[in-house]
Design brief:
Oligomer: single chain
Shape: rod-shaped
Structural class: alpha+beta
Largest sheet: 7 strands, mixed
Mean pLDDT: 79
Low-confidence stretches: 416-444, 549-566, 780-799, 866-889, 927-940, 977-989, 1060-1067
Length: about 1200
């Protein structure tokens, strides 16, 4: 049998193409490809080369549309014993070719060509082509004979034109030789025989029978030459004669051959015709051909030669014809019949060719599995021959079956782009569906057969001496079918991988991965010190509106832009290391050594760092792979590159995703990660990774250590934070802000220090001093605190997230220094440095309670009262200016006329294990305008009290002296219930608003002047926040402290009938006994309404007895002292004069009192009474007067 047979084979002229001399392989393929282009020569093109020596036997030669068909056989072929039966099997021409630069000796070429031609006795034309000759070879060429033809050096097109001319000449020569052959075949002396003819001596009857058959065979041979000459009509006429003669002589074998020739002549004559009648005719004739081949079977020759091969060839020819017409059913039946007949073939080569042709035809029909089955039969026949070349053939044939059995090598995907696209698309939308290729890839019923195919490929590769193919087969077998392989078999495959790798050069790569299984685990986010922020160059606060998102551009917290969470973007920076977490799994029963594994990046802008891993049997491990982006652009990470078992392979993440998807659908034998004990991992997609230019990188640390900053409540401490630029780009923009809780604890931030350090060059450092003040904890029960201290518990209260955080947004240049800006180029992003201030606040001094203490010292009657000061803003307001700083604490109350001193007593407890020293300071006013203390700016000094020591587990009381002052006016707005400045209606007057605001400002002003500081040891100091405690202590007595009495009483001496001014202090005045002393009482109205009252004056001695009335009176008076009716205008004073005559020297006390009969709501509220009819009694403070003299 012959391969690649068809009905048209009978009209093809076989030409042996022989390389002569030394021809390099690439040049050999090039020359042979030029010959293949001339497989068909039109008859019209050879008319100029054709010479008719006598009348041509081809009477119906189609010179207009006919052609000669060549079949080039590279290297030639041995002569066939069936050449007389089928003339197309003969080598009718021999063309040799030599490459002159490689074969300079033309004599040797000619001799070698002559020797080669002796093997082809049937050759009618013999020529040798010499390509690329030199000049000397061209000169000697004419002496070498007519069989040598030169092709001078020229371009490819010129050489092809020259070769076309030579092939037309050869075609014309063959046509003329065919005419001679036809004439010779008609002569009586021609003997035509086949191996089927008996070799024994012929009897007379058989001789007569043979003579009759010779005529039929001669006509059949003439018909063959007519077909080769391109004249189907003449061929059909001779075939018809041969059929009639063969039928008469019962020569069924030659009858079948002649009938086969008629089909070829019919097909050539009606080339391109497609109708059912023609197809039925071909099918009918070939059915007769096959039946007559069967009739020619001779049992005596069955062991030696059999016409079965021709019967099967005819079957294959009909099947190929019907396959071209698309008649699938009939083709399958014919191929099945031919496959059954293969068992009866004697020659193994015939059986091999038959299986090859059946596999090719099934493949043409699209029956891949049937084609793969017969290809495996071909491989088995190759493997039966124990030599390396047949093993190579078997390996190549089995490689073609891998696609049908779904065990193909990944390297074959490039030859099948459709399959590659299927594999790539299988990862898309894997949560909802999976591609059909994934289903077919893991069909469980094929597992055993797939293992057998891979094992056959492995064995053939080992026998063929191809270590790379053996490694690939073992890798596919181990990776895909490890659950079906015993531990011993797994170890054997591991040994096969190792042995194959030893025969490969170092650094060999293979497209098929083995172990381990690799899947993407996660992309670790950037640390908070390296957050990337989008940059808006149009705004000064370029970071505003860009929420940091770790490594990803999209976060659920970002606003203003609709983002697709399934397409995340990851930003990497040139020159900064990045990390990717992957998980490895070894589901086999042996220790796996991974020599190196690193990220596989094909974009060329990423340097990956390899690591080595050891995986115990049936184990998994999550490892970190790192690398550095080198240039700006996009980065794609399809998988990892692994050096294991001595070969470098690429493991794609999508392959493992498809594998896990098949496991979830029940299509895969086993999940390699689950069987290794790894938990189920959600599908992690590879984001779109873009690399941006180098950015600055600030690294922060606290000078003195990055540990927790331990502070006591209220402690103030300076912390130095060092910022260093660890990047390669200077910092040109920077801004500091606060975030988190307790932001008030950061007292000062050095904005100017950071701004003055810009630009911060690479390697430069700046130190920022930050002042911290520890916040206060919530109120703590003293009993609970005491129990904690008794049990030895440390009062540390540190909550997660309670410390403030410094946010430093910084950025480098707006353009990349290495690449000039282009139109539409993006601005490099900025960064955000998060500096958490790890503050641990310990409970410090514990506040227990606070109360208000007061002391009143009577004033002395002098020459004058404290001078009233009229203010420009409000003429009715008065204040007292003192000459001494101490008068700020102890001085005359202008609204009571007495010396006043008030204390705020604070009780503090020390529950800590350290000693505290408490110091109290009060701000004093130096200006005479006392009411200006309500303003923001004032010139004040500070008075410090002696320090108080509080030991551990002890309490102490601290006295805070309060400045004695009151508001100048008693207004009804001060008594409004639930008064709120922001809730005052439009009906409220501005005076009421101002009065209430003045009261609130006075309270705040009083509290703000008091500072309670503490110190513990040398370096620990702070300030207690006592505002709430002081305000709570003043809340119950705010009226007594700040609000004046309705009436103010005062006494003064009168000289020469008018008050005399004196620079002497008020207590320096004195009165002589036995003299008449003029005095006057001054009554001031502190309200905005007229007050009518009845005034009375009393004088008492040191024993408190009344000195004016009674039998023992020691003081005489002139004027009215009781029942004095007075009417005092609003915010004004009224005076009442009188005189006293002291009889006995000593110390006396004057007291003025008044009864207000017409009361109003203000007076009743100030007097804390609700009765409308009850009068209000106002008593002034006592005034001391010293009387000197003798009794």
């Amino acid at each position: 049998m012959e391969p690649d047979v068809s009905i048209e084979t009978s009209c093809m002229i076989r030409i042996a193409v022989l390389p002569i001399g030394l021809v390099p392989p690439n040049i050999l393929r090039d020359y042979y490809s030029m010959f293949l282009r001339h497989h068909t020569i039109p008859l019209s093109a050879i008319s100029s080369f054709y010479t008719e020596h006598q009348k041509s036997p081809f009477a119906n030669q189609p010179w207009d549309n006919g052609s000669l068909r060549f079949k080039f056989v590279l290297g030639g072929s041995p002569p066939s014993p069936w050449e007389d039966f089928q003339s197309n099997r003969k080598i009718l021409a021999v063309i040799g070719f030599c490459h002159c630069p490689s074969s300079p000796d033309l004599d040797f070429v000619v001799d070698q060509f002559s020797v080669a031609c002796k093997s082809y006795s049937s050759a009618l034309v013999k020529l040798c082509f010499a390509f690329c000759p030199c000049d000397s070879q061209l000169e000697d060429g004419g002496k070498k004979g007519e069989n040598l033809r030169f092709f001078p050096r020229a371009d490819r097109q010129t050489v092809e034109i020259h070769l076309q001319t030579m092939m037309q000449d050869i075609a014309a020569s063959l046509l003329m030789e065919f005419e001679k052959c036809v004439l010779q075949a008609e002569s009586a002396g021609t003997i035509l025989k086949t191996p089927l003819d008996s070799q024994a001596s012929l009897s007379s009857e058989e001789v007569i029978k043979a003579k009759k058959r010779r005529l039929a065979r001669a006509q059949k041979t003439i018909g063959d030459y007519c077909l080769l000459a391109g004249s189907p009509v003449d061929a059909n006429a001779h075939y018809s004669t041969a059929l009639e003669l063969a039928r008469l002589t019962a020569d069924f074998f030659w009858y079948a051959g002649a009938l086969e020739g008629t089909v070829c002549a019919l097909l050539i004559d009606q080339l391109g015709q497609k109708d059912a009648v023609f197809e039925d005719e071909v099918r009918y004739r070939y059915s007769n051909v096959i039946s007559h081949y069967k009739k020619s079977f001779i049992p005596d020759n069955a062991q030696r030669v059999s016409p079965l091969s021709f019967e099967l060839e005819a079957t294959l020819k009909l099947a190929r014809f019907l396959c071209r017409r698309g008649i699938t059913k009939d083709v399958v039946e014919l191929l099945t019949s031919a496959a059954d007949g293969a068992k009866s073939l004697i020659d193994a080569s015939d059986r091999l060719i038959l299986y090859v042709e059946i596999a090719r035809l099934f493949g043409s029909l699209g029956y891949e599995r049937k084609a793969a089955f017969f290809s495996r039969q071909v491989a088995q026949l190759y493997m039966q021959q124990n030599n390396r070349l047949t093993a190579i053939s078997a390996m190549q044939v089995l490689a073609m079956t891998t696609r049908a059995y779904r065990v193909q090598s990944r390297a074959s995907f490039s030859n099948h782009p459709h399959s590659s696209n299927e594999i790539r698309s299988s990862h898309v939308d894997s949560g909802k569906m999976h591609h059909q290729s994934v289903v077919s890839l893991f069909e469980s019923q094929w597992s055993t057969l797939q293992m057998v195919v891979l094992r056959e490929i492995l064995l053939s590769a080992v026998r063929a001496g191809d270590p790379l193919a053996a490694w690939s087969a073992a890798a596919r077998l181990l990776r895909s079918y490890y659950p079906l392989i015993t531990p011993a078999g797994q170890n054997g495959l591991a040994s096969a991988l190792t042995n194959s790798a030893e025969r490969l050069p170092s650094g060999t790569r293979c497209a098929d991965p083995a172990l381990p299984f690799v899947r993407l685990y996660s992309f670790p986010p950037h640390p908070c010190q390296m957050d990337i922020i989008k940059r808006n160059p149009a705004r000064e606060d370029w970071w505003a509106g860009s929420a940091p998102s770790g490594p990803f551009i999209y976060t659920p917290f970002s606003k203003g832009e609709p983002n697709d969470s399934s397409k995340q973007e990851l930003i990497w920076i040139v020159g900064e290391p990045v990390q990717v977490l992957v998980e490895l799994a070894n589901p086999c029963g042996f220790d796996l050594r991974v020599d190196s594994i690193y990220l596989s990046v094909h974009s060329g802008n990423f340097d990956a760092f390899p690591v080595s891993v050891n995986l115990p049997p049936n184990s998994s491990k999550v490892i970190t792979l790192s690398g550095i982006p080198t240039t700006v652009g996009s980065v794609t990470i399809p998988g990892c590159t692994i050096h294991c078992f001595g070969v470098i392979t690429e493991h794609l993440f999508r392959d493992v995703d498809n594998l896990l998807l098949g496991a979830a659908q029940g299509l895969v034998l086993s999940d390699p990660f689950r069987c290794c004990g790894s938990p189920k991992l959600r599908n992690v997609s590879v984001p779109n990774i873009s690399v941006v230019p180098s950015l600055p990188l600030l690294v922060s640390h606290v000078v003195g250590g990055d540990g927790t900053i331990v502070l006591y409540e209220g402690e103030i401490r300076d912390v130095w934070i060092s910022l260093a630029n660890a990047g390669t780009v200077p910092v040109e923009q920077a801004h500091i802000s606060l975030s988190g809780k307790n932001q008030d604890s950061v007292v000062s931030i050095p904005y100017d220090t950071l701004k003055s350090a810009l630009p911060l060059k690479p390697g430069a450092e700046v130190i920022l001093p930050v002042t911290l003040k520890a916040w206060q904890h919530g109120p703590v029960d003293p009993d609970i605190t005491g129990s904690k201290l008794a049990s030895g518990s440390v009062g540390r209260q540190l909550k997660d997230g309670s410390s403030p955080t410094l946010l430093i947004h910084y950025a480098g240049p707006t353009t990349d220094a290495g690449n000039p800006p282009t139109k539409g180029s993006a601005v490099p992003p900025g960064r955000r440095l998060v500096v958490p201030l790890h503050i641990c606040v310990l409970q410090g001094l514990s506040f227990v309670k606070a109360r208000l203490l007061s002391m009143e010292i009577p004033a002395h009657v002098g020459l004058n009262l404290p001078e009233p000061v009229c203010l420009e803003a409000n003429a009715g307001k008065e204040a007292i200016g003192s000459k001494s700083k101490m008068d700020g604490l102890v001085k005359i109350d202008p609204f009571r006329g007495s010396w006043g001193l008030r204390f705020l007593e604070l009780e503090l407890s020390n529950p800590t294990d350290v000693v505290f020293e408490i110091s109290v300071s009060v701000q004093l006013d130096n200006r005479e305008d006392k009411l200006d203390n309500l303003s923001a700016d004032q010139d004040a000094t500070e008075y410090s009290c002696p320090k108080t020591r509080i030991d551990r587990d002890y309490s102490a009381r601290v006295l805070v002296p309060l400045e004695h002052f009151k508001l100048p006016i008693l207004d009804g707005s001060f008594f409004m219930k639930d008064f709120r400045p922001d809730s005052v209606g439009r009906s409220s007057s501005f005076s009421e608003k101002d009065a209430k605001a003045e009261l609130n400002a006075s309270v705040k002003n009083l509290i703000s002047r008091i500072k309670v500081r503490w110190q513990s040891g040398r370096n620990s100091s702070g300030e207690l926040n006592m505002k709430d405690a002081i305000q709570a202590a003043l809340q119950t007595s705010v009226m007594d402290v700040l609000l004046p009495d309705p009436l103010t009483f005062g006494f003064r001496l009168v000289r020469n009938n008018f008050p005399q001014e004196s620079d002497m202090p008020c207590d320096s005045g004195s009165v002589m006994a036995h003299d008449r002393t003029p005095m006057e009482v001054v009554v001031r109205n502190n309200t905005k309404e007229i007050i009518r009252m009845s005034l009375s004056i009393t004088c008492r001695d040191v024993a408190g007895e009344n000195c004016i009335e009674g039998n023992k009176a020691t003081v005489l008076w002139a004027g009215v002292l009781t029942g004095i009716a007075m009417e005092v205008p609003p915010l004004e004073e009224s005076k009442h004069p009188f005189s006293l005559h002291f009889l006995v020297p000593g110390e006396y006390t004057l007291v003025a009192a008044a009864v207000i009969e017409d009361t109003n709501d203000i007076l009743r509220t100030r007097a804390k009474t609700d009765s409308v009819d009850e009068p209000i009694f106002c008593r002034g403070p006592p005034f001391h007067i010293r009387v000197i003299g003798t009794a």
